[in-house]
Design goal:
30% helix, elongated, 306 residues, 3-stranded antiparallel beta sheet, alpha+beta, 18% strand
């Protein structure tokens, strides 16, 4: 049975629409929810001088970012100020930051957290995620991953208590889902291919994320091809270089390592991405290489979806 949690929410200004500090008993993490108009008042708070991750919220959108302490000693506060002059400046009105009381989040830690928060928000679909590209997850040990996943669990509770259920999937009735499915099938739209994504794997992954977000639904006939290694290895389709690997693999959450094939990782991990197209939940292969012309072949296939 799940144990109860004590979340402490401190109204710094004594009002509900002011600066808020949140903690959980026996947790080393700490969070602040700050209206944009009050951000300048936070520059002397210790937490804002540290490394951490942050969420920009506004108009049903979210941007997930990270900040490391700079050489000038400035941390999260300065990174958030940077958004006052970038392309996100008009889209947010509140920020939530997460760090640790002892400032022990290192560069690898915040990279991992940023990536996981980004993917969880994207999968939930409750907010429009504004990040242009998927943050790099970095490499962590098995022990560190377990520690950071625990941090994520606590942060999710805090975000919910602060009014942002950014990781909680939207729930609709069966009839609503069926109606939405019927609408999507008859109103398919294919978004433009992403710009500025250099790596072929990142380019294809971002393209498929965008396609999923657009509500595109593959037909059963299309899926039969995309799940078939023989078809996907044809030179005129994707020219994959492994006769056992297909573009997609059906996702089975009961598999211990669904992203593995014959002892080798051939698909992106479920933590990174599980794509949903209509009734199909699938993993995407990560076997993409420029030298085999995969980018051009993918672009040709993608444009034929229109």
């Amino acid at each position: 049975m799940a144990r109860g949690k004590v979340i402490s929410v401190y109204l710094i200004d004594g009002v509900a629409n002011g600066k808020i500090k949140a903690t959980i008993s026996n947790w080393n993490g700490i969070a602040y929810k700050i209206p944009r108009r009050l951000l300048d008042e936070c520059k002397e708070l210790d937490a804002f001088k540290q490394s951490g991750v942050y969420f920009l919220f506004g108009n049903n959108m979210v941007y997930v970012g990270q900040a490391e302490v700079r050489k000038n000693g400035k941390g999260i506060h300065q990174r958030i100020l940077d958004h006052e002059n970038d392309k996100y400046k008009d889209y947010w009105d509140e920020v939530v930051i997460f760090t640790r009381k002892d400032n022990s989040l290192g560069r690898t830690d915040i990279s991992y957290l940023e990536n996981r928060f980004y993917n969880k928000a994207l999968e939930a679909g409750r907010f429009h995620v504004q990040n242009g590209n998927e943050p790099t997850i970095g490499t962590v040990t098995e022990e560190k991953e377990s520690e950071l996943e625990e941090y994520i669990d606590q942060a999710e509770l805090v975000l919910g208590a602060l009014g942002y259920k950014v990781f909680e999937p939207m729930v609709a009735s069966v009839s609503v889902l069926e109606a939405k499915q019927e609408y999507l099938v008859s109103n398919m739209s294919v978004p433009d291919l992403p710009e500025g994504v250099t790596g072929v794997g990142d380019f294809i992954l971002q393209s498929m994320r965008n396609l999923e977000a657009s509500g595109y639904v593959f037909s059963d006939e299309q899926m039969q091809i995309l799940l078939n290694p023989t078809e996907c290895n044809k030179k005129e389709l994707f020219n994959l270089q492994n006769s056992n690997v297909a573009f997609f693999k059906l996702y089975n959450p009961n598999e211990e390592k669904p992203h593995y094939l014959n002892g080798m990782q051939r698909y992106y991990t479920p933590k990174k991405v599980v794509l949903t197209f209509g009734k199909y939940k699938v993993l995407l292969t990560k076997e993409w290489y420029e030298k085999y012309g995969h980018r051009d072949l993918f672009i040709k296939w993608y444009k034929n979806l229109r």
